[in-house]
Amino acid sequence: MYVIKKRFLFLSCLLGMTVNAEVIPVYQIDAAPGIYVQTTLTHDIYRYSADARLNDLVVTDQQGNKLPYRLVAPSAKNTEQSQQMPVRFFPVAVGAPPETLLALSSASIRLDANEISVSVVKSDKEELLDQTAPTDFYVVDLSDLRTRADALMVLWPVSEQHQYLEVQVNGTNDMTNWTPITETTLVQLHKDGEQLTRNKITLNLKEFEYAYLQLKFMRGGENLQLTQVAIENTDKTTNAPAPDSWQVSGTLAEKQQTALHAINSGKKAAVAAWEFERDDIAPISRLSINLGEVVYGDQIKVFSRRSEKQPWQLIHQGIWFNAQVGSTWQQSDALHIHQNSDTHWRVELNELLRTHANPQLVFTRQPELLQFIANNSAPFNIAIDTQAAPDNQYTSSQIFSQLVNGKELEWAQTTFTELKPNINYFARHSMQIGWKTLLFWGIMIGAVLVLVGVAVRLMGQMKKVN
Fold it and tell me: How far apart are CA 271 and CA 255, in angstroms?
């Protein structure tokens, strides 16, 4: 009987804690480095929040007083600006002697009245080029370049023969002695209007380091015709804020027919489908698919929905590339997603990948800065108010703006400690208890009540006997 009462008391306390909990601390800041404090929030805070706009977020001091705060996007501290400069290039036939290379970019001497000047002839001498012999390599002329060369951009016509180009880059100043610079693989994949292009060769050359570059294609260069070569230099002026990025693994879907048939009553085509569920509701701005070391260049469909009861909504349909470029794996650029907070996701690929792929979804968003006005009552808690008003954040932001209006503020950046509260204390998760869980606890509570009733009856019968 004592054990039954103890278990019943524990269950009552647990339910009481869940019902009465209003402000639940998630992070703690032990001490404020100043009056105006800011810290960076990632998607993790959205695991606890029940609102995709964080209207239930509050900042409290040691006594539980709510402090004025606002959420802002971090300003870009650095930016990158790239400039491209087309440069002259020409093919060199197999077996061409060194004197031909020198003649293709020869120097001429001009005599004036009081001076001698040397000028370089830059005209393409077609008569020196052997149009019938296969191309051995390309020469890129940097002799007129007055700046450094960070990278080389190469363009060529799209074709199945030239999807992958393994290229070796060498440098010279005399067209005779060549120095190895780098080796890489260029890629140009196209299918159904989608493309994967990797046509940049990293050089990192100083000003006047080499007058000429040699592009020797070790694989895929047969009958290749380059259309443009340009030098690209990138200047970094500021630092952009690091993106907030995280991965979610999925499982093979129960239904391996495309979800499109449910949207537009189309054909139930067989696919390889995986479904994903993330434990946060952070609004995402970009989405990528990590296929690991699986070669892919085919159709992909991406769906999302807020809950299991809702129908799938098509987010993207197109071609996705995942290819090995040299020693690294490259994939298509991330998909741009507009502030999507859905928790359930579905990815459909070609059905041939069903048995040997294990895709992951990579979500990316811009982190947020939480700014608040600290007092002398540390520590401070970043918490979730499970009974917050719908316009809580707007009200706090308005008060905050009035307090700082006209002031030049210096924000003190700080970090926090994760308190790791029980996820089931929060409103969004408590509302997601399934019917099976409710049935289980109903049966358990009913059984406890039956046992309590039986025990009471037995105790009453024992008193009568005595």
Answer: 9
C-alpha to C-alpha distances, 316 to 100, 286, 333, 353, nearest whole angstrom: 53, 12, 13, 19
Which of the pair, 17 or 155, is modelled with greater confidence?
Answer: 155
Q: What is the mean pLDDT of residues 428-448?
A: 66
Is residue 298 domain-shared with residue 423, that is, in the same domain? no
Residue predicted with more confidence, 262 or 196: 196
Pair 353, 399 in one domain: no
- Which domain range does residue 424 map to? 25-74+368-432
Residues 249 and 206 in one domain: no
DSSP 20: H
- The answer to whether residue 309 is domain-embedded is yes
Is the separation of the CB atoms in 336 and 284 below 8 Å? no
Contact call for residues 239 and 78 (beta carbons, < 8 A):
yes
Are 179 and 171 contacting, i.e. CB atoms less than 8 angstroms apart? yes
pLDDT at residue 463, as a whole number: 67
Q: What is the SS3 assignment for 246?
A: strand
Partners of 333 in the beta sheet? none
CA 348/CA 275 separation, integer angstroms = 9
- Tell me, what's the pLDDT at 118? 41
Nearest alpha carbon to residue 347 among 253, 294, 274, 298:
274
Q: What is the pLDDT of residue 80?
A: 72
Q: Say if residue 225 is in the same domain as residue 249.
A: no
Task: Write the CA distances from 263 to 16, 254, 320, 337, 345, integer angstroms.
Answer: 44, 18, 22, 20, 15
Q: Based on the structure, what is the number of domains in the chain?
A: 3
Whether residues 302 and 288 share a domain: the answer is yes
Q: How far apart (Å, rounded) are the C-alpha atoms in residues 205 and 149? A: 5
Question: CA–CA separation, 334 vs 371, rounded Å?
Answer: 30
CB 365 within 8 A of CB 230: no
Same domain membership, residue 201 and residue 309: no
User: How far, in Å, CA of 120 to CA of 327, rounded?
Assistant: 40
Omega before residue 311 within 30° of 0, cis: no
316 is a domain residue: yes
H helices of 109-254, in order, are none
